[in-house]
Design a protein that fits this description.
single chain; 342 residues; alpha/beta; Cytosolic phospholipase A2 catalytic domain; 9 helices; 8 strands; 41% helix; globular; PNPLA_dom; NTE family protein; Acyl_Trfase/lysoPLipase; lipid metabolism
Length: 342
């Protein structure tokens, strides 16, 4: 990785694609990171490449959001940027995914078992279902995630770096009791909020926050978009970059149980995203047609950085180190293609 230029820790980051021209006005950019378990190692690679070419001449990052594994990436990138520089953000992403990868023979055996059971379940074989409340494994997993995050993120210091000069940080969950989407923003992003965003109901116990139980953000805003748009006018994004894990399109007809399970998983992860993007596009049309004043409403261009490859849904629980490295490298490649095409 190339060494990025240093910057003042409280300045908003800006990205310049290779060959881009500087201008007097910065383009506000928000990045939204879709959830998808281990597949979000791809997002870590995307963010790392963007940070490698980060510059102050063209774009300003005004917000970053994430759901589930995407929340890990959004938090790691945001924290590295506001507490140091681009290199620190890149290193933090590396460190978190290095800690989440399998380590030791016992961990590798457990990972193979979990991935294998997921594949068997998606194939339609009758697999005994066990509540995460009946076995100790899920709590051990939550403890490992918490320890990993707290090893690299000083959550108590987060409020000190929140403000008008820092990007918005948004984590998405769903409130099980209230039955609605809930986002945690800036100083409200705690270890519990990030855990809740990744608490898949059949794998982990719900996480209690403020008297309500919360589940995985895959059931909610995946990733959160609205909170990135609900900011002061001068901080609203001119461009929204979506790091999309789940394929948008599918060729042909899903006709086997495992392919059906795969496609259902992809669609469920894209539904809320497409709904929010449709509303933004509608507002853009109203602005273009003159129904909304441009002095009060801003046009937001939408761009997607898509994985572009389809992996079996069982691999969303696969923490094999080589697989995660493959996904991160793919993220670097897709980010480079995205910037080249802008």
């Amino acid at each position: 990785m190339s060494d990025p230029a240093k910057r003042d820790e409280r300045d908003g980051p800006r990205v310049v694609p290779d060959g881009g021209a500087s201008g007097d006005e910065l383009t506000n950019v928000a990045i939204a990171c879709q959830g998808g378990g281990s597949h979000t190692a791809f997002t870590a690679g995307v963010l790392q490449h963007l940070l490698e070419v980060w510059d102050d001449d063209e774009y300003e990052l005004v917000g970053i959001s994430g759901t589930s594994g995407g929340a890990y990436n959004a938090l790691a990138a945001w924290y590295g940027i506001v507490t140091g520089d681009h290199e620190k953000a890149i290193d933090t992403l590396d460190a978190i995914w290095d800690d989440l990868a399998t380590d030791g023979w016992a961990d590798r055996v457990m990972n193979q078992w979990a991935t294998g059971m997921s594949r068997l379940e998606s194939s339609g074989l009758p697999i005994p279902s066990v509540s995460p409340y009946q076995i100790p494994g899920p709590e051990v997993g939550k403890e490992r995630i918490t320890e990993t995050l707290e090893r690299h993120i000083d959550f108590e210091s987060i409020p000190n770096f929140c403000g008008r000069e820092s990007p918005e940080l948004v984590v998405g969950t769903v409130d099980v009791n209230g039955g609605h989407f809930e986002t945690f923003t800036n100083e409200d992003v705690t270890p519990e909020a990030v855990l809740a965003s990744a608490a898949v109901p059949n794998l982990f116990e719900a996480v209690e926050i403020n008297g309500h139980y919360h589940w995985d953000g895959l059931f909610s805003q995946n990733p959160p978009i609205n909170a990135l748009m609900s900011v002061p006018p001068e901080r609203k994004p001119d461009e929204l970059w979506i790091v999309q894990i789940n394929p948008q399109e599918f060729e042909g007809e899903p006709d086997t149980l495992d392919v059906i399970a795969d496609r259902r998983n992809e669609l469920s992860g894209n539904i809320s995203l497409n709904q929010e993007l449709t509303f933004i596009e509608r507002v853009n049309d109203w602005i273009d047609d003159g129904y909304l004043p441009e002095s009060e409403f801003s046009h937001t261009e939408i761009h997607r950085i898509e994985m572009g490859e389809r992996f079996h849904c069982s691999t969303k629980v696969d923490r094999d180190r080589e697989f995660l490295d493959e996904l991160m490298e793919l993220g670097h490649e897709r980010a480079a293609q995205f910037l080249d095409g802008k």
